[in-house]
Amino acid sequence: MRASLVVCIIGLVLLAVLPAVLPARLLIASIQMLVAALFASAYALLSGRAGMLSFGHAAYFGTGAFATVHAMNAFGGTGLLPTPLLPVVGAIAGLGVGIVAGWFATQRGGTAFAMITLAIAELLHALAPQLKGLFGGEAGISAMRAPALGLTFGSTLQVYYLTLAWVLLSIGLLYFHTLTPAGRLTLALRENGHRLRFLGYNVHGLGVSAFAISAMFSGLAGGLQVLSNEAANYAVFDAGVSATVILNSYIGGVGTFLGPALGAVLMTFFSYAASDATQSWLLYQGVLFVLVMMYMPTGLSGLFGMSARLVRQRGPRVAALVALLALGAAVLVSAGAVFIIELLQRLCSQDYRALASAATTLPPVNLFGRPWPPAALSTWILPAALLAGGALLAMAARRRLATPA
Fold first, then answer.
1. Which tens digit of pLDDT belongs to each residue from 225-241?
2. What is the pLDDT of residue 172?
3. Rg (CA), the chain
4. 56-70, pLDDT tens digit by residue?
5. What is the recorded membrane topology of this protein (predicted)?
6. Do 148 and 82 touch, CB atoms closer than 8 A?
7. Is the predicted pLDDT of residue 293 greater than 90, yes or no?
8. Which is nearest to 210 in space by CA: 44, 64, 59?
9. Dist CA 156 CA 244 (whole Å)
10. In 3D, which of 136, 131, 157, 155 has the Cα closest to residue 145?
């Protein structure tokens, strides 16, 4: 408990001093990471704690975004509320839509529940471009942050600290919810809803409350995104938004409270950095999700628990050795896989095929700052050696784990 508190305090200090060490471009990315962390934490309340897998949480994120952008444009652009309080409008809109959608969706469970949530999000996604008065058509709606409380909110720095304050407050409230009787019953709803009903609890009401609270904080996250971007369009209802929050949450680990936030921060940074470096970044994201689900079903946050158990059972020396071997295996296998994927992506590109059709031999592929002849054996030996080295290190780590202490 004390170690968790120390880690949280260190994290808060790092978040507070981050603007002093980051350039403006990365500060904008940091705002997107904070919004993604709140969205994933809100989603995890429903899918992780209550055990209801929603495929359409973009509906509440988008509703909060559009409610906030309308609130920003109210009264001739002066705003319905002072700028720091505008995310409240997104939260109220998300809560309202969440209560209605949750009342219908939680009538069913399992696959039917997931399909209902998906249908609601797709309905909004299809309607938004048609309802120009409400959603601004395909162009969407833009707005400007109005000065308030002596601040202009014209700089990224002020928006960062406003977003940080809202995200910390919201995550704190979500954590407080887990300590309340309603929060504990939400966990029981996931474990055994039939027993809760047998004990006399209103299971449907519990499901609706978890759905509505999750939608409320999702709407708040949408409102924070609009405050940052000063615009919203129908893309916020896209299925990709719902898929992203699912991937982020499960990669981080929905079984722990901060796991989804951790996954959202890491994956948002990964997409921000990788999308500039390669066209295959979505492939890497998908592969990472598959690998995490196959070999770490508790998510990346589960690594901390696994490491602690390994230290207790085998001692710090063995744990450090196994960690080094596993890290080395991951680095070598990743390097080999990235080399092959990038090489194949360039070989299959339209530009390379046009070059190859005009030449008598296959032209070399420029990759990582040097040319690689695709027909040369040496081009393929390097990734094969990396993969083989990674496999050997993984086998060594596994053998060390199997050896009695």
1. 999 888 888 889 999 89
2. 93
3. 24
4. 999 999 999 999 999
5. Multi-pass membrane protein
6. yes
7. no
8. 44
9. 25
10. 155
- Residue 86 and residue 84: Cα distance in Å, rounded? 6
Q: How far is CA 24 from CA 19, 28, 29, in A?
A: 8, 6, 9
pLDDT in the model for residue 404: 67
Q: Which residues contact 283 (CB under 8 A, 6 or more apart)?
A: 341
Per the structure block, which two tokens stand in for 313? 């059972």
What does each C-alpha distance from 43 to 115, 213, 219, 236, 379 come to in angstroms? 16, 10, 11, 16, 45
pLDDT at 1: 59
DSSP character at residue 405: -
The whole-angstrom distance between residue 54's C-alpha and the CA centroid of its chain comes to 14
Q: Supply the pTM of this predicted model.
A: 0.89
213-272 pLDDT, tens per residue?
999 999 999 999 999 888 888 889 999 899 999 998 998 888 888 889 989 998 888 888
- Could you tell me if 166 and 224 are in contact, meaning their C-beta atoms sit under 8 angstroms apart? yes
d(CA 47, CA 405): 39
Within 13 A of 59's CA, how many CA atoms are on the CB side? 27
What are the domain boundaries of the chain? 14-291, 315-402
Euclidean distance between CA atoms 69 and 140, whole angstroms = 10
List Cβ neighbours of 307 (8 Å cut-off, separation of 6 or more). 319, 323
Closest alpha carbon to 146 in 91, 89, 76: 76
State residue 163's pLDDT score. Answer: 94
Is 111 or 22 the better-scoring residue by pLDDT? 111
Q: What is the DSSP string of 345-400?
A: HHHTSHHHHHHHHHSSSPPPEEETTEEE-TT-HHHHHHHHHHHHHHHHHHHHHHHH
| Coarse DSSP helix, strand, coil percentages of the chain, rounded to the nearest 5 percent | 75, 5, 20
Question: Are the CB atoms for 18 and 30 separated by under 8 Å?
Answer: yes
The answer to whether the beta carbons of residues 95 and 88 sit under 8 Å apart is: no
71, with CB counted inside 10 A (0-12, 13-18, 19+), is: buried
Q: Could you give the 3-state DSSP secondary structure of residue 141? A: strand
Non-local CB neighbours of 179 within 8 Å, separated by 6+ positions: none
Alpha carbons 360 and 276: distance in angstroms, whole number? 33
14-291: CATH architecture: Orthogonal Bundle (1.10)
Question: Are 29 and 63 a contacting pair, CB within 8 Å?
Answer: no
